[in-house]
C-alpha cells in the first residue's frame, strides 16, 4: 500500500536547529549562535513561563476554558467579536482552517514567490493547487496591488505577506485596500502578519470592519517568543466567522499554549523590549555587513553574499547558523535573524570574514 500521489508537494525546509548542528560539528550547543529561524533571542516572557508552570498539573483536562479565554482576550485586543478570532496551532494551523473553509477541489490559491511554502502545501493537502506572483529581487521585493493583479486570474485565495519573508518588505495598507476592492467577489485575501509586531504599517485587521473578503494571520511565535508551543490565530470578517466551528480541529491549541499566550499578552514590556532589540539589530546588520542588504520590517535581514550555500556552511562551521535562502529561490542570499547585541555583533564579524574569503558563485 502507498499514500496518494504527493509528488506535487514541496517539503517545508526549516532553519537548522542548534542541537542538530552541535551534534554534527561535535561542539557544545551553547557555543553556537542560531540566527536562522527568526526566533525571539530573549525567549518567552517570564510571565508566560510562570503560566506554563502553573498550568502543567492541569494538562489532563481539554483546553476549553483556556481556549475561550484567549479568544475573548484577542477579540478585545483587536476590537472584534469573539467569533472573528480563530485560535490555532501556530499560524500554519490557521492557514489550514481557512483552506478548509474556502477551497473546493481544484480551486487555486495565488501566493508570493519567494514565500512561505506552507501556503501551497495546505492548498494541495485539501486537493487544491497554487500559482505564484513574483516578488522580485530586481525590484527590491516591492509589493503592490498592481503586482498581484497582473498575476491574478480569479483564484479563490490570494496570500499577501507583510512583512514579507525572507525580504522584510511590507505591503502598504492602502495597497491591500485596493486589492480588496479589485478582486472578484469569491476571492479571499489572506494577509499574513506573522512579523507584524516589528512593522510600522497598521494591521490589516483594521480593514475587517469594511471588507468581508480579508482574513489576517497572526502568531505568538515571533515577538512573543512562544514558537515551541505552536499558537497563533486568524482574524476574519464577522459575516462568515461561524465557519470556524465547522473546520476547527477539536482542541487543537493546547492548554499550555493558550495559558502561555494569555500571559504573554499581558507582558507588554517583554514585547516592547523585543521590538527595540530587533530595531537595533536590523540597523546594525545593515550598517556593518560588507554585503548588500535590504531594508526590513521583520526580525531578520536579507543579505546578498554570492554563494549562499558556501557562506552559510562556512558560517555554521564558525558557530553562527544563518538561513541559506536557496530554498526560497535566492541562491545568492542568506537571511540573518535579529539576535541580541552580542549575537548580532558576532554574526557580523564572522560573516564579514567569510564573504571576504569565499569566491562568488
Automatic annotation (TrEMBL):
Pathway: Amino-acid biosynthesis; L-histidine biosynthesis; L-histidine from 5-phospho-alpha-D-ribose 1-diphosphate: step 7/9
Catalytic activity: L-histidinol phosphate + 2-oxoglutarate = 3-(imidazol-4-yl)-2-oxopropyl phosphate + L-glutamate
Keywords carried by this UniProt record: Amino-acid biosynthesis, Aminotransferase, Histidine biosynthesis, Pyridoxal phosphate, Transferase
Keyword check for Amino-acid biosynthesis: yes
InterPro entries for this protein: Aminotrans_II_pyridoxalP_BS, Aminotransferase_I/II_large, HisP_aminotrans, PyrdxlP-dep_Trfase, PyrdxlP-dep_Trfase_major, PyrdxlP-dep_Trfase_small
Pfam annotation, one family: Aminotran_1_2
Annotated HAMAP family: HisC_aminotrans_2
The protein, known as: Histidinol-phosphate aminotransferase
Classification of source organism: Archaea, Methanobacteriati, Methanobacteriota, Stenosarchaea group, Halobacteria
Amino acid at each position: 500500500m502507498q499514500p496518494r500521489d504527493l509528488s506535487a508537494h514541496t517539503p517545508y525546509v526549516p532553519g537548522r536547529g542548534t542541537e542538530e548542528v552541535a551534534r554534527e560539528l561535535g561542539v557544545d550547543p551553547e557555543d553556537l549562535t542560531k540566527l536562522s529561524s527568526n526566533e525571539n533571542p530573549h525567549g518567552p516572557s517570564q510571565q508566560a513561563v510562570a503560566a506554563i508552570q502553573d498550568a502543567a498539573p492541569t494538562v489532563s483536562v481539554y483546553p476549553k476554558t483556556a481556549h475561550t479565554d484567549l479568544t475573548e482576550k484577542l477579540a478585545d485586543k483587536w476590537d472584534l467579536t469573539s467569533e472573528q478570532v480563530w485560535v490555532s496551532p501556530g499560524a500554519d494551523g490557521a492557514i489550514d482552517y481557512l483552506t478548509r473553509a474556502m477551497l473546493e477541489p481544484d480551486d487555486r490559491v495565488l501566493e508570493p514567490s519567494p514565500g512561505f511554502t506552507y501556503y501551497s502545501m495546505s492548498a494541495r493537502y485539501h486537493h487544491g493547487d497554487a500559482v505564484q506572483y513574483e516578488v522580485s529581487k530586481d525590484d527590491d521585493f516591492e509589493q503592490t496591488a498592481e503586482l498581484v493583479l497582473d498575476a491574478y486570474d480569479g483564484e479563490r485565495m490570494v496570500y499577501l505577506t507583510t512583512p514579507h519573508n525572507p525580504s522584510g518588505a511590507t505591503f502598504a495598507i492602502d495597497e491591500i485596500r485596493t486589492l480588496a476592492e479589485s478582486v472578484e467577489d469569491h476571492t479571499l485575501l489572506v494577509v499574513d502578519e506573522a512579523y507584524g509586531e516589528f512593522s510600522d504599517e497598521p494591521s490589516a485587521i483594521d480593514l475587517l470592519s469594511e471588507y468581508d473578503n480579508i482574513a489576517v494571520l497572526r502568531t505568538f511565535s515571533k515577538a512573543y517568543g512562544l514558537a515551541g508551543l505552536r499558537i497563533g490565530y486568524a482574524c476574519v470578517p464577522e459575516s462568515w466567522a461561524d465557519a470556524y466551528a465547522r473546520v476547527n480541529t477539536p482542541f487543537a491549541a493546547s492548554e499550555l499554549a493558550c495559558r502561555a499566550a494569555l500571559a504573554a499578552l499581558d507582558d507588554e514590556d517583554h514585547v516592547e523590549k523585543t521590538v527595540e532589540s530587533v530595531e537595533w539589530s536590523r540597523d546594525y546588520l545593515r550598517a556593518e555587513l560588507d554585503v548588500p542588504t535590504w531594508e526590513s520590517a521583520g526580525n531578520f535581514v536579507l543579505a546578498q553574499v554570492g554563494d549562499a550555500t558556501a557562506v552559510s556552511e562556512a558560517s555554521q562551521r564558525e558557530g553562527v547558523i544563518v538561513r541559506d535562502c536557496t530554498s526560497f529561490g535566492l541562491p545568492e542570499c542568506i537571511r540573518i535573524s535579529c539576535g541580541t547585541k552580542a549575537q548580532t555583533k558576532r554574526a557580523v564579524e564572522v560573516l564579514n570574514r567569510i564573504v571576504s574569503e569565499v569566491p562568488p558563485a
